[in-house]
Amino acid sequence: MPIKIQVIRKSRQLNAFLKLPWQIYRGDPNWVPPLLSDHRKILHPQQNPFFQHGQITRLLAVRDGKPVGRICAIDNRAHIDYWQEPVGFFGFFECENNQETANALINAAAEWLYPRGLNVMRGPMNLSTNDTCGLLVDGYDSPPVFMMTYNPPYYEDLLLKAGFSKSKDLWAYKVTKEDVSERLMRSAEKIKERSRVTIRSINVKHLFEDIELVRIVYNQAWSKNWGFVPMTAAEFDHTAKDLKQVLDADLAFLALDGDRPIGFSLALPDLNVALKRINGRLFPFGILKVLYHARKIKNVRVITMGVIDGYRNRGVDVLFYLATIENGIRRGYEWAELSWILEDNVPINKALEMIGGKVYKTYRIYDKALG
Q1: Sign of CA dihedral 214, 217, 220, 223
Q2: Range of the domain at 149
Q3: Mind listing the pLDDT tens digit for each residue in 15-39?
């Protein structure tokens, strides 16, 4: 039967779009079902401030009445304005192992993007680099950690045969407490003694005052990173409200020179350990399962760490790692994933190797010329 591409406009179609992964990943022990309520919110124009500067179309591939693939085409004007490049994006890609289906989805996304003056399609991004992104191409032997992607190995082949090529690799490092040597800790302590920069935990009682400091740092520290898009105040507040629910203040740090914020680091417990147990639904009893299984979490993800210009290469990153390691071990965590890191971010990659980190998963962003 031929493939039909449906534009998602009705809630019944959206349900099929959101629930397709359960069909694709059936029997995969490493897949972590996404929270359906979260994905609804991400894709809802009235609930996600991304849509103040971006537009998407949601596409579902159907064969003989059965959903077999999906994709979002994304027009992110914030990226275009910031980088002055006519790039569109794709995300939320899921597909059966069938090239015809993949081609139909990708062609439909391209046909939506190209008339908007966009001559490259890049992804996967859900919806930008400020969200989950990248296709897993190495490291299928373990589940993804919190807010990282996962996909079957055959997705890479589908994209390559559809005309995509590598744009950039994103690396995930793994560090165990056994990897952290006493020599490293002594070196970090010496940096701490010499530095005029102080590191403190996020103040939960004054969380939103600290979040405004973090936003200032974020949009400065990452400004030159490949793919970076500044977050608006509305986007930052939206993200902060979500993260507040899972924040461990002992794993979130500000670096200050006097009263001036110059860096930020955030690690989060790997909630995927608990989310894996609730099959995408918090209610009616999923929240109780999350609370129960959260006690068994033994790892964290260092989700972001940055230092503004003028303070790099002074060991501030090492101070962040030291604080995270010390507090993490004290809280009973045994290992951390540090992700994602651009493959060509030489200073950070060297620092992570210095503390014993090893690349154990690779995610890839692809480009495809349009027109």
Answers
A1: negative
A2: 3-168
A3: 999 999 999 999 999 999 999 999 9
